[in-house]
Amino acid sequence: MHEIEPYYRWLNFYNSAEDARSPYHGKEYNYDMYSDTIYGYYIDPAWDYLGSETLYNKLLFVDYEKGTAVIELMGEWNDAINNDIMHFKRNIIEHMMREGISKFILIGESVFNFHGSDDEYYSEWFEEVEDSDNFSEPGWIAGVNFPDFIKDELSNYNIDLYINLGGELDVVNWRTMAPKRFCEFVDGLIQRRLN
Fold this sequence. Notes:
alpha/beta, 5-stranded mixed β-sheet, globular, single chain, 26% helix, Transcription Regulator spoIIAA, 4 helices
């Protein structure tokens, strides 16, 4: 598990530790010391703690002008025991929404398991980003490249009512795109779905 790194080739475009509006502003990373674990397995020190024992994230890119954030996730998403969505929403998402972010792209390739519970936090998040009174335009939540069995589990708990998943959102080549281009690409896919 320690070999799974968050995508780092966009660091020239965005670094959450250097972004004064980021929840991770000022964080110092020691890439030689592995201290965070999931179920006793060390994880790469570049992952950021979001309040959960089993789910970590990395803010890969934020475009405040367009109101878009790209967040990579890693670990086990466990709403049943740890209420991970509560931690994620309260500690990361709400911070970003206060900064004007209404479009969230979640990269789920490194989510290994999902244990669902109720959908209240997802519903709340969805309603908040859709509310155009809070933002310049209504937002959305997109899940990119989640494994099929995770998408099935999310669907079993009706989370797919709030997070757009699957189909063209399984963007195999997202790493070959510049971050703004990737955000525009996903926005285009979502707009097509909404229309």
